[in-house]
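Handoff note, outgoing to incoming analyst
You'll be picking up this chain. Sequence as last confirmed:
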Amino acid sequence: MLEWTAYIKIFTTLLAIVNPLGVIPIFVSLTSSLAEQERKRIAHTTTLAVAVVLIVATLLGKPLLNFLVSASPPSRLAAGFFSCSWRSP
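Most recent structure output, in case you need it:
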């Protein structure tokens, strides 16, 4: 079991990635002409898609980078650029 500080780190990282407060104005402006039921359907579909992408990235991200690093030198370079672009400073 993780310590509570690890859970806080995980939660804040997910909050920064998903950015729900920043997405609300975009969602409202893009769906302003739709009926409420349609907006709810789009919100549920979007939530499911984001959850699937986060779960797949969590499960396959590290193995994919390990594969790229162990492949060829150009792949190592690409993996290095990829991993550097996804890490916070």
